[in-house]
Amino acid sequence: MNQEPAIKLISLRDAATLISNGSRIHLGGMAVHNHPMAFVYELIRQGTTNLTIVSHVSASDVDLLIGAGHVNRLEFSYVGLEEFGTAPCFRRAVEEGQIELAEYSEPVAFERFACSARGMPFFPTREMIGTDLPRVNPDIKQISDPFGSGDYHAVSAAEPEWVIIHAPAGDKYGNILFFPNRQLPEDLDITATRSSANIIVTVEQIVAHERVKQLPYLNLVPRFRTTAVVEAPFGAHPYSCLHVYDQDREHLAHYAAVARTVEGFSGYLEHYVHAVETHDQYLELIGAARLARLRQIGGAW
Amino acid sequence: MNQEPAIKLISLRDAATLISNGSRIHLGGMAVHNHPMAFVYELIRQGTTNLTIVSHVSASDVDLLIGAGHVNRLEFSYVGLEEFGTAPCFRRAVEEGQIELAEYSEPVAFERFACSARGMPFFPTREMIGTDLPRVNPDIKQISDPFGSGDYHAVSAAEPEWVIIHAPAGDKYGNILFFPNRQLPEDLDITATRSSANIIVTVEQIVAHERVKQLPYLNLVPRFRTTAVVEAPFGAHPYSCLHVYDQDREHLAHYAAVARTVEGFSGYLEHYVHAVETHDQYLELIGAARLARLRQIGGAW
Amino acid sequence: MNRHPPSIYEIMVSVISRELHDDELWFLGLSTGPQTILLLTRLPIVAMALAQKTHAPNSWMLVAGWIMNPDVSKVPTGMESEFGTSLGNWPAEAFNNSHCMSYVAARHEIDVGFGSAAQVDKYGNCNTVAIGDYRRPRVRLIGPVNQPGHFSLFGREIIIMPHEKRNFVDRVDFISGAGYLEGPGCREQLGLHRGGPCMILTDKAVFRFDENTRLARLESIHPGITEAEVLAETGFKHDYIPHTPVVTPSPSEEDLALIRESIDPSGVLLPRATG
Amino acid sequence: MNRHPPSIYEIMVSVISRELHDDELWFLGLSTGPQTILLLTRLPIVAMALAQKTHAPNSWMLVAGWIMNPDVSKVPTGMESEFGTSLGNWPAEAFNNSHCMSYVAARHEIDVGFGSAAQVDKYGNCNTVAIGDYRRPRVRLIGPVNQPGHFSLFGREIIIMPHEKRNFVDRVDFISGAGYLEGPGCREQLGLHRGGPCMILTDKAVFRFDENTRLARLESIHPGITEAEVLAETGFKHDYIPHTPVVTPSPSEEDLALIRESIDPSGVLLPRATG
Q1: A290 & A269 share domain
Q2: Dihedral sign, CA of A125, A127, A133, A134?
Q3: What residues 71-110 of chain C have any CB closer than 8 A to a CB of chain B?
Q4: For an interface test with B, which of D27, D52, D93 has the most B Cβ atoms less than 10 Å from its Cβ?
Q5: Residue A92 shares a structural domain with residue A237
Q6: Residue A19 to residue A25: CA distance in whole angstroms
């Protein structure tokens, strides 16, 4: 009697309801790649509030949530749009004193997740010495090396309550497949899933369980650690899902331009998030021809 | 004018002379896999003394060096021969109080190398709580989490002066290629190379630089970090080089049996190490037919 | 059905399997020596497969921490080593090619581990380090390996050992795996609020730990073994062994069929009963 | 030979290349905005390739920390992003698919980094965090990203910026990259015994830092630029700019040929001179 394991494939809407108001969450992806945007839009539609976002290198995933008023606190190293410049809502909210910040250098922000993944409460570092970061961030504490090498900054583990990432594929049981030649954004996502007991993965495609068993070396978030898996094709748009499609540069340039004003941002939010009920409707709004041309053919399996 | 980078391919003999008496070294491999045995034999032939070995899960690589009297201090988690039982020389030397020990649980012993690779002087852990290890190991110190989660053991980074590993292939410039579907012994070796500035790699085969450029994702010890590369086919014998050949179970059973006595060990050492001048002579001693049958055909590239 | 009666190994597999629950994460580590490989690696693998095929479909099996949920019926070796080229081709649900897999241990996510030792004491403390004085031991053993974490980070530990008098001692010479230390409250005092040994399983009997005294208590004796045989080989004080053990239940016919036909069809893992 | 004269970008490339030595490890990070991508990503890539092809064959180039020693002539994008599917196919000597590559930074193995900022001051301190008060800034910037480590862990930092008065300030509002802080001895006092900025390279001039005063010193002015133009756009005090700058040397004919024909043959990285 071979019993079937639990099916963890749920709808985008049901997945987003797992996040309570006031949660401490990490959104995967880095710079202009692999952010779980479909999930971000759904969080905004559901009105989830008072979020703490623990992050490293974020873009409009975080900028949208801040602009729409869902974020109380941000632990991070960067919010920006790379070639498309600064993140307008983040900038506005900070200039107006609307969100609490705890900022770190980039490798330290990465390491905070690795630290949670290793079950460590904190780690010592000297890389922020000389900067003003420890002056403005009370969570950068002092510690002495008990082996005598002197003083260090102690930084706490990331400890996200929820980690949400976007990945290429998964099965209905929650096994998640990655590509073999991963880049930093994908690797950081894998580490991030190991930093929390509560993991939601949106995937480009649900594949047969047999496919997972053919590629066990690429099953880097096995189902025993996945809380829920959601099928969301082009779920990172307007960002790239590496190896699957490129970022939508036209769309990102448009966002960077209109979000410079509160009015422009509101219009964007209304058009692309609130006026849309489902992820499929979002894809129709972007359009088949545009999406078709963003695809990268000849992936890595 | 394209200039050629420095050639780092040297002889086994020249490589072993890089290690001074009294050095703090790490020998790669784990359990019955991937130990740099050809290098170990050459260290013994050269009579390098007063070594500190910083290790995790060791086998006769360390047992031979201890038995031959080259080791003063051992930082480790395990010395044994897996299915072939305990490590006879290690056992004898410790029972006679001949070497200084600093022992740790296995993940902690692994983490010490990751800690060096991350430039951290120490890390906090609670996994050895309740054991007698902190009582007998003065290098397990106490530390408090500055974020208030209580007391931890602090363990220092491994900080080997030299790391010597055995790998499948490399080019003459010191780029080292690994297989894509690596197992823990190989992954630990890669981490170990990142824990030190001085790295010697013995490889099964020197391949053309062009091959490295065809497989850049597998070049996981790039040449800027390699001090020297040595060609040593079957260089892990009697252990396996994963994907290339299996361990020589007959030879290991023989070692485990004869090394139980000082006389038996001396005979083994004389026969397989001292009476042999070069690695090629060692291979002839083991014999072509035996080696041919240990091979694994159909590797992973 | 007209089967051979269950072997001692099949009985032990059945005990382990019943101790494994659904929705759990199980971890198997390294063994040293042929007997330990049989008891501590092969038996638990068969038991984990049996549990998954019967009552624990949502459990997850970490073999050597890197082979996850393999198809046990297709095991390519006798598991003489945790690693090996052919193990990398074992059909499995996932492989993890890095020591990052230890994250599930450090994060207290592992529910059950399997352990052995040269000495176990009445409080379930284990010793894989040294017999005699640590600095000049009478017998130096393999080292702590992963045992400290098995007893401090995991949900519970199933100790599996050959039942010999010298292995069952009143007080271990060195604690590499922290059982209940010196008795009630000791673990809690050190902040070890979960975990510890849940069972000592031998080729003769099953011990559990009394919830109040924290002492090993003889729970059942395997079929065909006498109480006298057990007590003769149990080195720790008899006071701590109430004389009310039952007979260890044998595996059901269905479980035996699963073991023999589905899980270990070619007898690579369990020695076959003869006759 | 009858070439176009060197463009300002080719002159800047040549300055960077001369600052790079053999047997070194060079690190290039993320840039924000098209102008910074040109100055801080494209120029250094060409300069690193030029150095490798001339005087630094044993150097090693880390592009975004994961693409190592790529064949720059075959760059598949304009480096608008550090990552991307097509960058993964860039012919290179090695790729590192994990953030473990940061180990070379943490271990103080990186010799040269490239940095930019919204503000740089006379001591080479850099600011990518906030202009005005940190809690209620006049302009909130992108955040520290990797800049702290560039100035604390690397051997030296080449600052590359557009030469505008508002960017060159007497004292940065927030230190995200520690230059010489408040002057001589300050770095050493904090245990920063190596590293720090070695140069500010702009589209108009080159500054270095005086070994005694630690103040930025105008070293050379690019061909075609007047001293008055430089001083008008340099916001920090003129006292610190001795009036003896020379003309920045132009690239040699051989270097120009390498840049235009071997390194950037299709002009993906450097804007092409017209005419």
Answers
A1: yes
A2: positive
A3: 80-88, 95, 97-99, 102, 105-106
A4: D93
A5: yes
A6: 8
Angle between helices A106-117 and A184-193 (to 10 degrees): 40
A210 touches chain C (CB under 8 A): no
Contacts of C265 (CB under 8 A, 6+ apart): C73
Is residue A252 a contact partner of residue A237, using CB atoms and an 8 Å limit? Answer: no
Q: For position C275, what pLDDT does the model report?
A: 42
Instruction: Say whether D30 and A82 touch across the interface (CB within 8 A).
Output: yes
Residues A143 and A232 in one domain: no
Residue A111 in contact with partner chain B when CB distance is under 8 A:
yes
State the total domains in chain A: 2
Residue C95 burial by Cβ neighbours in a 10 Å radius (0-12, 13-18, 19+): buried
Residues in B touching A139 (Cβ below 8 Å): 147
* CATH class in words for D8-263: alpha beta
Q: Does one domain contain both A143 and A267? A: no
CATH of the domain at B170: 3.40.1080.10
Residue A73 lies in a domain: yes
From chain B residues 176-205, the ones with a CB under 8 A of any chain D CB are 191, 194, 197
Domain containing residue A238? 12-105+160-294
Of B141, B156, B171, the one marking the end of a domain is: B156
Mean pLDDT by 10 residues, chain D (275 residues): 84 98 93 93 98 96 91 94 91 81 84 97 97 97 97 97 95 98 97 96 96 93 94 81 83 96 95 68
Q: Identify which of A54, A59, A3 has the alpha carbon closest to the alpha carbon of residue A26.
A: A54
Q: How far apart are CA C157 and CA C197, in angstroms?
A: 4
* Residue from D62, D83, D157, D181 whose CB has the most chain A CBs within 10 Å, to mutate: D83
Nearest to B181 among A122, A143, A217 (CB): A217
A22 within domain boundaries:
yes
Q: pLDDT means per 10 residues in chain B (301 residues)?
A: 84 98 98 97 98 97 98 98 96 98 97 94 97 98 97 98 98 96 93 96 98 95 97 98 96 98 98 97 98 86 64
B78/C144 touch (CB, cutoff 8 Å), yes or no: yes
pLDDT of residue C64: 86
Minimum mean pLDDT range among A271-280, B178-187, B193-202, C151-160: B178-187
Residue B4 forms part of a structural domain: no
Q: Is B300 within a domain?
A: no
Averaged confidence pLDDT in chain C: 93
Separation CA D28–CA D145 (nearest Å): 13
As a whole number of Å, the CA-based R_g of chain B is 19
Tell me what the mean pLDDT of segment C155-159 comes to. 98
Q: Is the pLDDT of residue C22 over 50?
A: yes
Query: Do A151 and A290 lie in a common domain?
Result: no
Which of A224, A225, A226, A227 would best serve as a mutation to test chain C binding (most C beta carbons within 10 A)? Answer: A224
Percent of all residues in chain C with a pLDDT value above 70, rounded to a whole number: 94
Clarify whether residues A178 and A134 are in a common domain: no
Q: What is the structure's pLDDT at D275?
A: 42
Same domain, yes or no, for B138 and B176? no
Least confident of A202-206, A294-298, C17-21: A294-298
| Other Cβ atoms within 10 Å of C256 Cβ, number | 21
CA-to-CA distance for D204 and B11, rounded, in angstroms?
A: 52
The tens digit of pLDDT for each residue in A38-66 reads: 999 999 999 999 999 999 999 999 999 99
Query: Subunits with at least 3 CB pairs below 8 A relative to chain A?
Result: B, C, D
Judge if A165 and A178 occupy the same domain: yes
Contact B187 C99 (CB under 8 A): yes
| Burial state string for C19-39 with b = 16 or more CB within 10 A and e = fewer than 16 | bbeeebbbbbbbbbbeebbbb
